[in-house]
Amino acid sequence: MSELINNRKHRIETLKHIIRHLHAGQAPDEVREQMRRLVGETDYAEIVAMEQELIAEGMPVEEIQSMCDLHSQVTRDVLVQLPAPSLPGGHPADTMRKENAALTRVLGDMRMAMAEIQTLSDNAIPKGALLKWRHCYNELMDIDKHYQRKENAIFSRLEAHGITGPSKVMWAKDDEVRDVLKELGRALAVTDGLAGEWKMVAQTLGLAVVNAVSEMIYKEENILIPMCLNLFTEEDWGEIWLASPRYGWCLVEPGKGYQPPEKILRAGKQIPMSEDIALPTGTLNLKQLTAIFGTLPVDLTFVDAEDRVAFFSEGPDRVFARSRAVLGRKVQHCHPPKSVDTVDQILADFRSGRQNVAEFWIHFHGRFVHIRYFAVRDDAGAYAGTLEVTQDVSPIRALEGERRLLEYDQPQAT
């Protein structure tokens, strides 16, 4: 057993050594040959450990992010493909795999549409092929649901098991996919153009989308999902299953057959107790308090003094989806890497007392959203956490004149 452990440690150290050479500019083909000669074979756990140790030793996440596609390309020849276990329909890992299969089908259709355009003369108008391409793009945009479930429900469970580095890198790569998809969407929104112009779009943005999504599917199927299946408990999978509907499904519906642990089912259906809570300005029971938070026309999220998500409200029409999987999670891990510096700046300014409010407003899915962060302090002025208040203010911005008489915006209930 000790020999196996030592061999594993040696392979991880060798992987780190070779990857550092790749980052220093050594040719990928040379690195690939070194992998074959010095490592022989490895598995997903050693790849994850290698990246985790590089980050712990000071290599920036951004550097690994920029090179991780090359990491997977040079390690493919030595990565042992473990047989996929049979899972019941509806198990979160089974759903991810089915979604990846559906995404792979869409990518194949997109490749064919782009290839059809390549066969046309430059002065042709590619109506049929362009229509197919746009249809594939619309289907592919469903991928955001897949990524949101992964980032919010799965990564939080990885973090609970002490694995943070690789998930940060993967989240950053997800954002790269989102960015290039948006660029392709802007290009495909153009209504005219000759085949020669669309050929250029296919060879640049189209190919970039296909490659980026395919690469992420490979990483999920060969590293992320096997790692989670080996690491997660039944309770972990149950928590992921419970959180998943908030984010929706990508191209396919989950199957039937998976049964989460009974305590997870009970937690999902738990009704607040009718215990009174004495507040300085009145008394409410838990049921009333929950109903009030669910009625407020704003979304609330509270991050405690240790930067952990402690609470969020559940209104009927949240702007940004939340799940119980984020509770207890470091707020920095709930944001894409490119946003973490801003999050840290706000928290540092609130904690030091330099600032008490930070606000932003954005256009989001056809809504004008106002996001405010408030420093929460105790009676002595000590920092107790940060409250995020998010509101769709589109209806408020549209108000004009006055309303002084009773008038309901919704039809009267019958």
In CATH's first tier, which class of the largest domain applies? Answer: Mainly Alpha
| CATH topology value of the largest domain | Four Helix Bundle (Hemerythrin (Met), subunit A)
Radius of gyration equals: 25 Å
Uncertain stretches: 1-5
Q: Which geometry do the CA atoms define?
A: globular
SSE order, one letter for each helix or strand: HHHHHHHHHHHEEHEEHEEEH
Number of strands: 7
What is the fourth-level CATH superfamily of the largest domain? nmb1532 protein domain like
What is the CATH-assigned architecture of the largest domain?
A: Up-down Bundle
State the strand order across the main sheet: 4-3-7-6-5
Please state roughly what percent of the residues sit in beta strands, choosing from under 5%, 5-15%, 15-25%, 25-35%, 35-45% or over 45%: 5-15%
**Total domains, how many?**
3
Structure, explained:
The N and C termini lie far apart (72 Å). By secondary structure, the chain is of the alpha+beta class. Helices cover 55% and strands 11% of the residues. The protein has helices at 2-23, 28-39, 44-56, 61-75, 92-118, 127-140, 143-160, 165-188, 195-231, 234-243, 262-268, 286-295, 337-352, 394-397; strands spanning 276-279, 282-285, 299-304, 309-312, 357-364, 367-377, 383-392. It has three domains: 2-75, no CATH class; 92-246, Up-down Bundle (Four Helix Bundle (Hemerythrin (Met), subunit A)), CATH 1.20.120.520; 276-397, 2-Layer Sandwich (Beta-Lactamase), CATH 3.30.450. Strands 4-3-7-6-5 form a five-stranded antiparallel beta sheet, with helices on one face. A two-stranded antiparallel sheet has the order 1-2.
